[in-house]
């Protein structure tokens, strides 16, 4: 089959689909991955065909409006900023998507590319497989990923309803932009009020480890929990300064918030450095898209823009991150305790899951992050023997899975 994957968003939103694309190519399919030009090297470096989708997510994330919204943690405010960016990008994505899907027999997309892919599926008359790295099908077992974890206290009915509402929140945010793209670019009528209808019913893939999130008993056979979609570890040589730092003392902790930004990176960095001093830890600080600053750090802290997670995480005592689905999967696969500092969206869901599994302390919400709260979490993560043992055992289970191969097997078995 000719398969086009559509993955929009930050690196954490894109990298799992690069891994999935590699698995599909190994299974004998021709694979094209459509994403922002920022990730061209990531895609082509993995040997996949790249199709550019215009737009710069980093510019949106670093805008004053989004920084303020992220700092507030208010999902409505975040959605408003995202909706405005979507209005600007939808026409371009429809145009670029038509090119990316020009000869496709099958489209594959997760949350980042789902709405675009649904319209393209209708236009090109090509079936679509939903492939998510967060749970995105109703269940009574746990709440929707963007709902507060406390929703579970209301019982199974509330959990199931929250999944329905999660899909509607994401669709309604995009609906006006989708209608315009359908009319002005694709020549299609507006989608129904509550969302597009699939061209045909196909299985849904969830690239999540069943060791992290057991398969809900009320999911039917069309819902597949395949295991995480992780890239094979690349042959990466660290800069000499980083290697020297790692060898100069006990294993440090890794701290980074990926694509998340803060209104005052210097203040966030000062809080992180003070927490390290209180807890007596060394650290590798991953500055990411503007959440941490390289200024005024002691010699016990090494600052770098980014390091491959699969190389760094197994070498540290604990991983502090924002709780994105991709980073959480990498952190848990490394077999070390995870400390989640959630900003918004599905991040509190993953932070709570880490706590429930006993492989990390209770999450430290971004608005509650200070030297004391982070120091307390760091101390627990590096001194709790049971937590370290559970994290190591969970990591071994995840690494023994082959979620990519399982997902490719499901897709290869489709009768189109």
From TrEMBL:
Residues 3-72 form the Glycosyltransferase family 28 N-terminal domain. SUPFAM superfamilies: UDP-Glycosyltransferase/glycogen phosphorylase (SSF53756). It comes from the Bacteria. Gene3D superfamilies: Glycogen Phosphorylase B. CDD domains: GT1_Gtf-like (cd03784). Residues 294-398 form the Erythromycin biosynthesis protein CIII-like C-terminal domain. This is Glycosyltransferase. It comes from Deinococcus rufus.
């Amino acid at each position: 089959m000719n398969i086009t994957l559509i993955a929009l968003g930050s690196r954490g939103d894109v990298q799992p689909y690069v891994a999935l694309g590699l698995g599909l190519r190994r299974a004998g399919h021709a694979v094209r991955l459509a994403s922002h030009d920022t990730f061209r090297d990531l895609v082509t470096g993995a040997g996949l065909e790249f199709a550019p989708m215009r737009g710069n997510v980093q510019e949106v994330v670093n805008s004053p409006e989004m920084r303020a919204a992220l700092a507030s943690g208010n999902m409505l405010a975040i959605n408003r900023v995202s909706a405005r960016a979507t209005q600007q990008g939808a026409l371009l994505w429809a145009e670029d998507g038509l090119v990316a899907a020009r000869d496709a027999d099958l489209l594959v997309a997760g949350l980042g590319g789902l709405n675009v892919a649904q319209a393209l599926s209708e236009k090109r008359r090509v079936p679509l497989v939903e492939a998510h790295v967060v749970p995105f099908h109703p269940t009574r077992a746990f709440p929707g990923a963007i709902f507060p974890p406390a929703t579970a206290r209301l019982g199974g009915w509330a959990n199931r309803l929250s999944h329905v509402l999660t899909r509607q929140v994401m669709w309604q945010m995009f609906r006006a932009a989708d209608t315009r793209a359908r009319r002005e670019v694709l020549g299609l009528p507006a989608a129904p009020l509550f969302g597009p209808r699939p061209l045909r019913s196909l299985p849904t893939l969830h690239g999540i480890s069943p060791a992290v999130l057991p398969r809900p008993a009320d999911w039917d056979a069309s819902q597949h929990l395949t295991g995480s979609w992780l890239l094979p570890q690349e042959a990466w040589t660290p800069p000499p300064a980083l290697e020297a730092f790692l060898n100069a003392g006990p294993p440090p902790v890794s701290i980074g918030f990926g694509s998340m930004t803060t209104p005052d990176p210097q203040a966030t960095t000062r809080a992180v450095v003070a927490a390290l001093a209180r807890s007596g830890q060394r650290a590798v600080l991953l500055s990411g898209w503007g959440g941490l600053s390289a200024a005024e750090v002691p010699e016990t802290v090494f600052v770098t823009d980014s390091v491959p997670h699969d190389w760094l995480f197994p070498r540290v005592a604990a991983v502090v991150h924002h709780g994105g689905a991709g980073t959480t999967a990498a952190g848990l696969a490394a077999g070390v305790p995870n400390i989640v500092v959630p900003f918004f969206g599905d991040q509190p869901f993953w932070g709570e899951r880490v706590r429930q599994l006993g492989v990390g302390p209770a999450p430290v919400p971004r608005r509650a992050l200070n030297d004391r709260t982070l120091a307390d979490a760091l101390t627990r993560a590096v001194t709790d023997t049971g937590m370290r043992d559970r994290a190591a055992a969970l990591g071994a289970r995840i690494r023994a899975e082959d979620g990519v191969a399982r997902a490719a097997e499901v897709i290869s078995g489709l009768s189109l």
